[in-house]
Amino acid sequence: MIRIQRAAFNPGNEITLLRETVPGIGAMVSFTGFVRDMDGDDSISSLTLEHYPGMTERLCAEIESEAHKRWPLQASLIIHRYGVLYPDDPIVLVVTASAHRKAALNACHFLIDWLKTRAPFWKQEETTAGTRWVEAHQEDEEAALSWSASDQQTT
Description:
Distance between the termini: 21 Å
Strand content: 35-45%
Order of helices and strands: EHEEEHEEEHEEH
C-alpha cells in the first residue's frame, strides 16, 4: 500500500493497523524518517517537500512491486508526506512484513534506499543560513546502486 499525503501520520498507529489487518505475520520491520532540526551548523526551521503527482505514486508502486518480486512479503506500506514540515515531524514510513525476518529486513532496506534516491520528491530547507535545496548524497546513491548488483541476495 502506498500513500503520498500532506497530512501527518502516527507511525505506531500505522504499524499496529497493518499488523491487525494482515494475519500470520512472522516478522515486521519499519523505518521512520523525521525532519531534522540541524544540518551541519545550521538550524532548520522547516522543510518543504514537493513532488510530481501521478508520477510519484506510479514510481513508488513500481518499486514496491519489485520488492514483492524479490522477497516473499506478506505486506508492505509506504507513506511519504509532502508540503511544509517542521523538525521532528515524520516524513516517511516504510513497513515490510514477511514470514521471516531476513526478507522483511532486506525489503525495508531496499525500499528506503530507493525512496531516498529515486522517488520524485524535492526538498527545500529553511535554515538560519537561508533557504536551500537539499542535494543528493553520494553514500545514498551508492546504497541504492548496491541493490541492482547481479549477485544481490534476495532472500
